[in-house]
Amino acid sequence: MERRTIGAAALAVGAVGLGCMPMNWAYSTSQQRGDRSLRTVHAALDAGVQLLDTADMYGPFTNELLVGRALKGRRSEAFLSTKCGLLVGDQHVVANGRPGYVRRACDASLRRLQTDVIDLYQLHRADPEVPVEETWGAMADLVTAGKVRALGLCAVGARAGRRPGARTHDTTLRQLERVQQVFPVSAVQAELSVWSPDALEDLLPWCAARGVGVLAAMPLGSGYLTGTLKPGHGFEPDDPRARHPRFTAEMMAANQPVVAGLRRIAERHGATPAQVALAWVLRQGRHVVPVPGAKQERWAVENAGAAELVLTDRDVAEIAGLPRARESWD
């Protein structure tokens, strides 16, 4: 499997990662099973996946506990990424970037993950009440202390805090420029997929020019690009897709040509639409690692197989010609 590097720390990871969040938080909670999740992580590792991505807010806390159990006896096989900076309440999420909190959060994550070092520690969101340099400085101290190997930043949501005329990732780029003056950024996590390619415009070039890795979040469009979701099939009330503007029955139907295009290419290669979608992300640069979520073994193994799929120029041109995904506010 092709190796890819994460940023300034020159840490090598596998071509496709595994997002652990859906295993016991947010997506289709009635389908989440602890034992099945453990088997899914093990199947991913057996298939050559190394990067496992979690966060203390997922659960909250239970996702890290799950990953810690899954890695018992297999820690050396994994590149472990987790995040801090967000606190989950009953009906809200708030940022906390105070240095003291960051230090406590890291120690708690280390305990839950049953490890003595985190390979990549990411700031989930900057705290508007704390200069991001102070938060980042506390995270840098964790590297000095040997608790963390490298630091990463999660991109601000595509529509969050945007001014009229601003590019999608202007806020994130401003944060990156600020924290880079304090301690090197090794990776940026941002949404990137066939139907959400905005990061190609400005964020990926910034990272490539500075040797910073990119963790491509939601590379399968939260499941839509797999072709397994049908318009009007409905979501559980606590599933975020139930409120997402691309997952109304109308928009899912309108975006079917995107999936149909991926399916045509997949049939030529004897692959699946999901593997084509992941192969497209992999083609965006050696510093890009897609991190699809998976709850079941078969999906984790299928996703890992995308690393062996080489898209042709014709394939890439066809994907570029697919209609842009629509949303209910379009």
Describe the structure.
The model has no long low-confidence stretch (mean pLDDT 91). The protein contains 11 helices and 12 strands. Strand 8, helix 4 and strand 9 form a beta-alpha-beta unit. The termini are far apart. The longest helix is centred in the first third of the chain and has 15 residues. Helix 1 crosses helix 2, helix 1 runs parallel beside helix 10 and helix 3 crosses helix 4. Strands 3-4-5-8-9-10-11-12 form an 8-stranded parallel beta sheet. Strands 1-2 form a two-stranded antiparallel ribbon. Strands 6-7 form a two-stranded antiparallel ribbon. By secondary structure, the protein is an alpha/beta fold.
Spatially, the strands of the biggest sheet line up as 3-4-5-8-9-10-11-12
Distance between the termini: 40 Å
General form:
globular
Largest sheet: 8 strands, parallel
Give Rg in angstroms. Answer: 19 Å
How many helices in DSSP terms?
11
Unreliable segments of 5+ consecutive residues: none
Can you give the helix content as a percent range? 25-40%
Mean pLDDT: 91
Number of strands: 12
What class would the helix/strand composition place it in?
A: alpha/beta
Strand content: 15-25%
Order of helices and strands: EEEHEHEEEHEHEHEHEHHHEHH
